[in-house]
Structure formats: structure tokens, C-alpha cells
Amino acid sequence: MISTRQNIDWRSVFDPFSIIYIVLGVFCAAVALKVFMLPNKFLDGGVTGIAIIVNLQYDIDLNLLLVLINIPFLWLGWKKIGKTFAVQSSFSVFLLVIVLVFLDIPPITNDLVLSAIFGGILMGLGIGLIIRGGGLIDGFEVITEFVQKSSPLSASEITVFLNSIIMLFAAIFFGIEPAMYSILTYFTAIKMTDYVVEGFEEYTALTVISREDEKVKELIVKEFGKAISVYKGERGYLPDTFHIKHPCDIIMTVVTRLEVHRMKEAIQQIDPKAFFYVQTIKEVKGGVIKRVGKKHS
């Protein structure tokens, strides 16, 4: 959790769960680097990718590079995002360096595909755990936020663009094949990070507009055990009958992706002409979300 810029929230910094997340995340990232990525010249994105390129190309100590390259981004995070965030991120970076110095695990496979996939999984797991602990080991995420404010591109598009440049340099210095494996590692890491940060169980907002709104509300709440929000609205306004409209309740509920299809089928049995739209939700907190209702048959 990022605090306000003015003060350091020491309770967050020394929170046992935050420290455990960061320590486990750093260990996973270190294993990914030592066992799978560095022996095969595979890159991750961001600061880690830049540090690996410079290390392999110019034989400059990787640990020193990780600290030096991250310093400007950590300073920017301190000034613009939050001091608590900067402290936790600094702790994460320095802990990663310490673990890399003392960790001595030899490569466990010569298979390049396995190295790319499992290196990405471990790196993504590590980054995700560190983010859940309130920090970062890659300051690139900080600069992305500020570039986005003055750019028509989204944060994800900016991140992909900047990391594409890193992968291009990887292709120039190490060859096309290591660069391709690096891209596989990078995208595996991104997906794994998303799973860890957002959860494996993705939530979806299902909105229903139906002439049988009372029956639909009863179905969702009593049969599926889900909470609902109701908006007052109007249905109608069709092209051939624009002047015809009817008041209705617009029903919204939050479900898992595994429940969407089953719930839509049940609603269509009540009203075959019911209108649905579905939205992906990044985060859900509070309310009645995980209550398990009766299985609707």
C-alpha cells in the first residue's frame, strides 16, 4: 500500500506480512536470476533487463548495477509517489542484492524453453509478492506512471514499448534466439505477476437489464447467494420505437468468471430477451463476494 508523500508509515514498513511478502518475493526473483536467466543470457524487462545487458556485455558487477540504476527511480518514487513506498522498494532492492551475493544454486536444466518459462514464473512470482508487500525491485514502473500522464498511450503500452527497446538491444548484443527466449521469459513473468497481485480467481461485473427485474434480483440473491446493486433506469429507445420507454431496475452483481455463464443461462430462462454486459474487474474488496450460494440447476 502506497502511503501519502509527506510521512513514512512505519507501521506499514515493519508490518510482518509486508516483510514476509518482500522476503519471499526477493528469494524467488533471486532464484530466477541465478538458476534460469543469467546462465542462459535471458532478460527480464525494466531495470533488471538493463542491468543484465550491461553486466554481460561489459562485465560490470550485476549487484552494483541493480543498485545504481534503481537509485534515480527510487528517488523519484520518494518525491512523487510516497516515502513509505520508496523505503519498502529500497529495502527490496538491497535485499535482492544481498541474496544474489550469497545465493549459490547451480542451473538445474539445460533446456532453454524450460529455463525461459520457469525463470519467468519465478520472477513474476517474486515481483508479485514484493508488490503485495508494498515495494518494487524494478524502478521502471515508477517512470511509466509519469510518462503516462503526458502521453496518449496507456501504462501497459508504455511498458511494452520501453521493454521492447531493451529486447532489441538484447538481440543486438546476444543474438536473436536469446532475445526471443527473453521475450518468452518476460511475458511469462508479466502473467504470473498479474495472477499474484490480482488473484487467480478473476472477478467480473455482470450487469442485467430485464423486464423481469424482480425475478432476476431474486434469482441472483437467493439462488446464487450474490449481493446486488440496483440502479434506477429506463429501457426501450429502440430505433423503430424510440418514443417508447419503460422504467426498470438495472441490476449489477460481481461474480467469478466460472459463474458468469451459469448465471446468464439461468437469467435467460426467466427472460430470454434480457440484456447483459460484462466487465472485467481488477480488484474487489468488501461486501459479499465469496459467499457460496446454492448451485442453480
Description:
There is one protein chain. The protein has 297 residues and is α+β, with helices and mostly antiparallel strands. The protein has 2 domains: 10-198, no CATH class; 203-281, Alpha-Beta Plaits (2-Layer Sandwich), CATH 3.30.70.120. Helix content is 60%, strand content 12%. It has helices spanning 10-13, 16-37, 46-58, 62-80, 83-102, 112-132, 140-149, 155-174, 176-198, 213-223, 257-270; strands at residues 203-209, 228-236, 245-256, 275-281. It has a 4-stranded antiparallel beta sheet with strand order 2-3-1-4. A hairpin with an 8-residue loop joins strand 2 (228-236) and strand 3 (245-256). The longest helix is centred in the middle third of the chain and has 23 residues, at 176-198. It is elongated.
Entry keywords:
60% helix, disordered N terminus, 4 strands, single chain, 297 residues, 2 domains, alpha+beta, elongated, four-stranded antiparallel sheet, Alpha-Beta Plaits
Q: Which helices and strands, and how do they pair?
A:
Layout: H1 10-13, H2 16-37, H3 46-58, H4 62-80, H5 83-102, H6 112-132, H7 140-149, H8 155-174, H9 176-198, E1 203-209, H10 213-223, E2 228-236, E3 245-256, H11 257-270, E4 275-281
Antiparallel strand pairs: 1-3, 1-4, 2-3
Summarize the structure.
The protein is an alpha+beta fold and 297 residues long. The N terminus and C terminus are likely disordered. It is a multi-pass membrane protein.
